[in-house]
Amino acid sequence: MVADLLTLDGWDGMFLGADVTDDALLDRVAQTRPGLVVLSLTMPTRRRALAPLVARLRRQPSSPKILVGGSAMLGRELSDLPASAGAVLSSARAAVEWARRWKS
After folding, report:
1. How big is the chain by its Cα radius of gyration, in Å?
2. Cβ-contact 38, 67 below 8 angstroms
3. pTM of the full predicted structure?
4. 92, 3 Cβ separation under 8 angstroms
5. How many angstroms separate the CA atoms of 94 and 75, rounded?
6. Confidence tier at 79 by pLDDT (50, 70, 90)
7. How far apart, in Å, are the Cα atoms of 8 and each of 2, 4, 63, 96?
8. Does pLDDT of 46 surpass 80?
9. φ, ψ at 54 (rounded to 5°)
10. What is the dihedral of CA 61, 79, 68, 56, to 10 degrees?
C-alpha cells in the first residue's frame, strides 16, 4: 500500500514483494541506489532481524533514508532501531507525509 501511495504522490517506486530476502533487497539497493527505502514488517518474529538489516542498508553507498512500518511495528519506537534508521511510522499516510518532508 505504501508503495502505491508514494507512486501516486510522484515517487518513482519499486515494490519488491512480501517475501524478499535481505540479500535480495540489498542487491537491489546496490543496483538502483534509491534515496528512500520503505520496509514493512508484518511478523513480530522479524523485528530481531530489523536492526542488522538497517545497519547493512546504511553501509550502502547511496545511504538511503529508511522508513519502517507494518503491523509488527505498531507501538514500537525508534529506540528499537539504530539511531540512523530514519523513522518508524504507524500508517501509510504518515509514510507519505514523512517522505514529502524529507524530499523537500
Report:
1. 13
2. yes
3. 0.78
4. no
5. 14
6. very low
7. 10, 6, 24, 10
8. no
9. -60, -40
10. 30
Residue 91 C-alpha cell reads as: 500508517
Sign of CA dihedral 71, 24, 61, 96: negative
Q: Give the cell for residue 18.
A: 512480501
Sheet holding 36-40, edge to edge: 36-40, 65-69, 86-88
100 Cβ neighbours under 8 A, 6+ residues apart: 9
DSSP structure string for 33-99: --SEEEEE---GGGHHHHHHHHHHHHTSTT--EEEEESGGGTT--GGGS-GGGEEE-SSHHHHHHHH
